[in-house]
Amino acid sequence: MSCLLNVLLFVFVGLAKSAHLIDFSNVLHRNLGNVKREVDMARCHPTQPFRCPGDKTICISIQYLCDGASDCPDGYDEDLKLCTAAKRPPVEETANFLKALLANHGPNYLEKLFGAKARDALAPLGGVNNVAVALSESETLDDFGKALHLMRSDLEHLRNVFMAVETGDMSLLKSLGIRDSELADVKFFLDKLVSTGFMD
């Protein structure tokens, strides 16, 4: 309330002097900041669960992530990788899916999708978690290829796999040795990526 009185007093004094245009942006941003952020040295409140990186605990509501306005001091809440990941399945879900395929079919199974670098449980690509993070944070398939240093031929193969899934042509997946019992799960997983702009 006192802040509002100060603003009104400032306006009336300014009008009385009719001297200068008033810039409310700092006052409004400071006040909105109190609504949007919670500084708590212990942890974030459930209504503001996203914690900005840094030494100071600054928490913001999920609705302010990727909304075009920076709310974290370093602008992390508008980071392209973060905003892409927000649309994708969680990294843990992706990693668990990849691990399940490897556990059921052997360490070279994902070579069918990602090419020769996917041998030995994705070790040449940095491991399962690294691939899961790249799938989550890479805006497009080309970005994914750059993040993991895929060869052009492997990237084109993966593009063909995604296009087959997008068009509903499961014959390519079958020709890669993906069993009928797995087709639905693989298609479901790849569809999630396609639906979030991975092929754009």
From TrEMBL:
| Record SMART domains | LDLa
Highest taxon of the lineage: Eukaryota
The stretch of residues making up the signal peptide is 1-18
Q: Does the keyword Signal apply?
A: yes
**CDD domains listed in its UniProt record:** LDLa
Gene3D superfamilies given for it?
A: 2.40.128.620
Decide whether keyword Translocase is in the record: no
Q: Which PROSITE patterns does this entry report, sorted A to Z?
A: LDLRA_1, LDLRA_2
Q: Which UniProt keywords apply?
A: Disulfide bond, Signal
What name has this protein been given in UniProt?
Answer: IDLSRF-like peptide
